[in-house]
Amino acid sequence: xxxxxxxxxxxxxxxxxxxxxxxxxxxxxxxxxxxxxxxxxxxxxxxxxxxxxxxxxxxxxxxxxxxxxxxxxxxxxxxxxxxxxxxxxxxxxxxxxxxxxxxxxxxxxxxxxxxxxxxxxxxxxxxxxxxxxxxxxxxxxxxxxxxxxxxxxxxxxxxxxxxxxxxxxxxxxxxxxxxxxxxxxxxxxxxxxxxxxxxxxxxxxxxxxxxxxxxxxxxxxxxxxxxxxxxxxxxxxxxxxxxxxxxxxxxxxxxxxxxxxxxxxxxxxxxxxxxxxxxxxxxxxxxxxxxxxxxxxxxxxxxxxxxxxxxxxxxxxxxxxxxxxxxxxxxxxxxxxxxxxxxxxxxxxxxxxxxxxxxxxxxxxxxxxxxxxxxxxxxxxx
Length: 382
Fold this sequence. Notes:
Blueprint: E1 2-11, E2 14-20, E3 24-29, H1 36-48, E4 68-76, E5 79-87, E6 94-97, E7 100-101, E8 114-117, H2 122-126, H3 129-143, H4 147-173, H5 185-222, E9 228-233, H6 243-248, H7 250-271, E10 282-287, E11 290-291, H8 298-318, E12 324-328, H9 336-346, E13 351-356, E14 369-374, E15 377-380
Parallel strand pairs: 3-13, 3-14, 8-12, 12-13
Antiparallel strand pairs: 1-2, 1-4, 4-5, 5-6, 6-7, 9-10, 10-11, 14-15
């Protein structure tokens, strides 16, 4: 899979720009702040319907414009597919596949499979559990696009359930009905357990498949004797039958979630929020016997974050998916040894897009087509 053409209209700093790529490596070179990351951010948004830099869509639209358009021609198995996405802040995005409108924007997920590493990925290692859940779920959807619907259904249930609990909490606090109207809470419990079990099963299976790739990638990038590891940490007690068996037993996961919801009911009513479910889980990262968060040095944290993305890339390739690989401003942070080891790992990518401020930071083996980026403009120079 590779991107043949990318066109942006009113996206970030670009009024209009169009780039044509070929398979293999491409390097986007330019000073900091001129819009290199905006280009790869657009590809990441098209692939995941989310930005790795901001939580809302408004910053993606150029100042003074009402909407932004991302238009991308993707080649897969020698077949071309035009994917279009219109971003309208405050409203649902509109999407087209092959010039035909889709019912939902998320139907474009899977048209472009992409793994993007950026400096913001340090937050996966150092940040809140939400960052690590997002990493897992985006990879889960890239690997199996049907999980986009599972995530949407689960998020909708949590939102509805929180609204019900919040209303009951406020009613009690203001002296209204003692318990508020909780008559439908059991129904939402059942929905949360069903959709949550599906999401939890997907994550458990993913982490099991990902773990050896993380260890391999960290060893290659960091070149140390300490091994990197990952494990899934659910917020509830699960049957002690191992992650692989649990992932295959949706009914056991659903029962465990229902039991945990029952135990947490009083606390949830008292606090007005859902305390049980995959939205409270975490991904545990270790180097040697110590957790990465709080113990790893800057270099170790950077290598771990990079290893997580490289592991995702290797896992997808091992399963017959050939994603586009994007390295956004990576090489400036790496010493020469790590640069060369990383180059060896990714040199065989079907398409590799690299952004940098200094072209010489990119190892020679990865210097393919070169694009010079200035404010609002991109030139193919070789």
